Amino acid sequence: MNDHPSKALASFAANLQFDSIPEPVLLRAADLFVDWFGSALAGKGARAVETIDWFAQQMGPATGTSEVLISRRQTSPLFAAMVNAASSHFAEQDDVHNGSVFHPATVVFPAVLAVAQSIGCSGRDILTAVVAGYEVGIRIGEFLGRSHYKVFHTTGTAGTVAAAAAVGRLLQLSPDQMLHAFGSAGTQAAGLWEFLRDAADSKQLHAAKAASDGLMAAYLAQQGFTGAQHILEGPQGMAAGMSSDADPDKLVDRLGERWTLAETSFKFHSSCRHTHPAADALLEVIKKHNLDPEEIARVTTYVHQGAIDVLGPVVNPQTVHQAKFSMGIVLGLIAQFRVAGLSEFEGYFNDSRVVAFSKKVQMVLDAEVDSAYPARWIGKVTVETTDGRLLSGRVDEPKGDPGNTLSRVELEQKALRLAAFSNAATPSEMQAIFEKIWHLAECNKIASFLAISSV
Amino acid sequence: MNDHPSKALASFAANLQFDSIPEPVLLRAADLFVDWFGSALAGKGARAVETIDWFAQQMGPATGTSEVLISRRQTSPLFAAMVNAASSHFAEQDDVHNGSVFHPATVVFPAVLAVAQSIGCSGRDILTAVVAGYEVGIRIGEFLGRSHYKVFHTTGTAGTVAAAAAVGRLLQLSPDQMLHAFGSAGTQAAGLWEFLRDAADSKQLHAAKAASDGLMAAYLAQQGFTGAQHILEGPQGMAAGMSSDADPDKLVDRLGERWTLAETSFKFHSSCRHTHPAADALLEVIKKHNLDPEEIARVTTYVHQGAIDVLGPVVNPQTVHQAKFSMGIVLGLIAQFRVAGLSEFEGYFNDSRVVAFSKKVQMVLDAEVDSAYPARWIGKVTVETTDGRLLSGRVDEPKGDPGNTLSRVELEQKALRLAAFSNAATPSEMQAIFEKIWHLAECNKIASFLAISSV
To answer: Which positions fall inside the MmgE/PrpD N-terminal domain (chains A, B) (predicted)?
Structure first.
């Protein structure tokens, strides 16, 4: 009896079969895996990520079955998931689902990879678990609504349950066990946006903890540990505590018919997703009129309230990470280089020309953009030129969205750039990884990608 | 500059010196340590606790410096803190601070003990860290207010920051590092009451995660990992997300003058603290009039709203743990045995006489009791006898509160009963533990209490 939303969603995740997942969804899952892999490698050398890896080394076993991608060592699944999750949420290049404002890859893939390597899963098991994690996490993000996202980092909160669902599917939990796993995951769900004002390191911590806490919830459930039955929609559950506009119907929206994984967007720019629609719209104007930055007197971006909530507090970014949440700096890089990638951020986020340009940018709440959000992320800008022209640009789907997606060649190029940026893997190693992932469904037992086995 | 509450509280914790703590507070800290030790041992054999220990064995190192009390093995501080915290929150006998409705011992002592054994601290270091943890956690619980406690388990939320403060003090964090530790702890803070309706295992999970997550936050801060500067009172911080009546003044209430640790209550009955005032008041009536349970026709307890919120949903308790949250069952045990200890719960929570008595009990919201709460937990009952008498009882401080506290002999007896209940330590082992703790301030380097060293 799937007589309430938490139970229906848990049963869906527990019962999901590889053969019932449409082929395009499976292909997209492999695309997302390749895209995630690049992000996971890009975090190598980043202080926040390396500090979490240091902690994992202090507290976790020195050997194990599951690989830490940035260091190529092996440890227990808990710590591999923790470090790989932190790492893949560093470069702000991991995927995002627009409607839920949730980054699924950075919590789902680390948990799945770590556990799959530990218990020896097939590629089909892995793809099934990944789809379960995405479908659960995205629906919970949509359910928790905009009020939740104003204060809570959905990737930390919904992400904990997503990781539990994915690991629970790998561990072949029964529907009842899966519901207990949801209960233990949801009651650990956390992550506050407060860190953003101080450019603090919490974003990586949120991903790390969502992946590892969700993993813990699933392992505990397998052993009979019980959790709340209505953790999502109950009167003292997640929504009761952390949302004022939750909609339980979203939890079970067309389960088995609508595949939210295929709605997920790849990130093209190296910045917070809230900046992408405006960046693409500005790029359109710049290219069409072949504008130099010096010709631009003012840029007005017409945005949704969520963009103002997240980006508004970032006024004088002092770090690369903070700059990725500055609409002004992002548009300054676009104006200067016509691209806002990792290298542009590292080299120029505090360049005087870019900073000067950032002062010309303002955000304005727009009724059309706001009402379309979060289902659609419309980009609208007006540009005033120094010679008095008023130019406007608009994109209805930013680059990387399902209707404007990246090809497998573009995904490989992006992953190669990310791996090269952090010096975490050679191009030939990356090619071997791509081959494995494109043929994942044929793999009988997943092995290490980069680690030299400690066994 | 302690220019905002999060910073002032973090600076207080970082700067706290043993010599500045009044002697009665230090003596009470040792009392609380002995009291905690009994609770930590009482969880041995409990399914939920043993399952968390199983997970710790799967994911953590098989050797280490820090002892798991219920199994006498050693592992890394993270997992020792996790298991000891789960264990000490099982029997519902650990201490509670009334004003904050927060159980400090179950999160502070496990984190402190695990880290102190790892880095080799003195007894004075330990006592100082414990006081730091209590003072921080209790003030955060008071700050988050009653609206928070309606949905969130304060021991899970405030407890995470309390553990970070205690471990941070042991690690000798600077005030700036301590503030970062608060940021990383607060953004992980979680724990929802939803599990209570289903008698699920989450209460032990909340304690386990608060202790281990707070520990992680402090270790990360020591290595330069940054956190939000205003995690407690900021516009996207803990109170913004999880409270509607937060009062920042509570965070810094008479720091260094008021010692909230000394306000903490010992639990005498083996049940949720919300049942204790009524249990003591009923016991007073029963003793005064020498009543048998059969002579009682009806009991009305006059309670605060928080008691109704937490106990109200528990209508037909199916497990010992759930019975500890049933006002009817608790009063039934009191009426039957004049005591509601672990043995009475284990043997009689579903005894037909006790269940029948529980149906005679009702809770009524009382204006006087509610307005005194949470500073004072007044117990008021009226008892209708079968022969038509209307008797009333009242206690202004339930047994175990600071004005009605337990002596060191009573504390030792309670700890001996708890250790004997779970068969976790012999009376002579317990006597040796008591000796060590009563002389803790003279100890130069803490060693294991029960573990056989794996080194």
So the answer is: 8-249
Instruction: For helices A123-151 and A23-42, give the axis angle rounded to 10 degrees.
Output: 70
Q: Please indicate if any CB of chain B lies within 8 Å of the CB of A454.
A: no
Tell me what pLDDT residue A42 has: 96
As a whole number, the mean pLDDT across chain A is: 96
Chain B residue numbers with beta carbons less than 8 Å from the beta carbon of A228 are 192, 194-195, 197-198, 200, 202
Whole-angstrom distance, CA of residue A434 vs CA of residue A439: 9
What's the rounded Cα separation, in Å, for the pair A385 and A400? 29
Q: What is the mean pLDDT of residues A158-187?
A: 98
Q: Residue B109: left (phi > 0), alpha (psi -120 to 50), or beta?
A: alpha
Contact A216 B55 (CB under 8 A): yes
What's the predicted TM-score (pTM) here?
A: 0.91
Best residue of B188, B238, B243, B319 to probe chain A, by most A CBs closer than 10 Å: B188
**Predicted local distance difference test score (pLDDT) of residue A454:** 44
pLDDT score, position A453: 57
Structure tokens at A445: 């037992």
Q: Which two tokens stand for residue B157?
A: 């939320």
Q: Which of residues 122-151 of B touch A (CB under 8 A)?
A: 150-151
Least confident of A29-33, A348-352, B451-455: B451-455
Q: Do A205 and B188 touch (CB under 8 A)?
A: yes
Show which of residues 77-96 on chain B sit within 8 Å of chain A, judged by CB atoms.
Answer: 77-79
Is A55's Cβ below 8 Å from some Cβ in B?
yes
- Can you tell me the distance from the alpha carbon of A92 to that of A102, in angstroms, rounded to the nearest whole number? 12
Give CA A159 to chain center in angstroms: 9
For A188, the closest of B62, B190, B199 (CB atoms) is B190
The pLDDT, as a whole number, for residue B451 is 87
Q: What value does the mean pLDDT of chain B take?
A: 96
Alpha helix ranges (H) inside A290-407: 305-311, 320-323, 327-337, 342-348, 352-358, 367-372
Q: Which residues contact B428 (CB under 8 A, 6 or more apart)?
A: none
**ipTM for this model:** 0.90
Cβ neighbours of B195 in A, within 8 Å: 183, 187, 226-228, 231
Q: Which of B55, B151, B236 sits opposite A240 (nearest CB)?
A: B151
pLDDT higher than threshold 70 for residue A455 = no
Residue range B74-84: mean pLDDT, rounded: 98
Residue A153 has pLDDT above 70, yes or no: yes
pLDDT of residue B454: 44
Mean pLDDT of A99-105: 95
- For chain A, list the domains and their CATH numbers: 5-267+416-442 (1.10.4100.10), 273-399 (3.30.1330.120)
Is some CB atom of chain A closer than 8 A to the CB atom of B216? Answer: yes
Cis upstream peptide for B398 (omega within 30°): no
Question: Cα–Cα distance between B54 and B450 in angstroms, integer?
Answer: 19
Do residue B187 and residue A205 have CB atoms under 8 angstroms apart?
yes
A182 interfaces chain B, CB cutoff of 8 Å: no
Pairing state of beta strands A296-303 and A361-365?
Answer: parallel
Contacts for B444-447 with beta carbons within 8 Å, 24 or more apart? B444/B122, B444/B123, B445/B120, B445/B121, B445/B122, B446/B113, B446/B116, B446/B117, B446/B120, B446/B121, B446/B122, B446/B123, B446/B126, B447/B117
Distance from CA of A274 to the nearest CA of B (A): 18
Q: What is the structure's pLDDT at B453? A: 57
> What distances in angstroms separate CA B162 from CA A352, B9, B137, B141, one per listed residue?
43, 11, 4, 10
Please say if the pLDDT value at position B67 is more than 70. Answer: yes
pLDDT at A164 over 70: yes
Q: Is the pLDDT of residue A1 over 60?
A: no
CA dist A32 → A25, A415, A420, B333 (Å): 10, 11, 19, 58
Tell me, what's the pLDDT at B341? 86
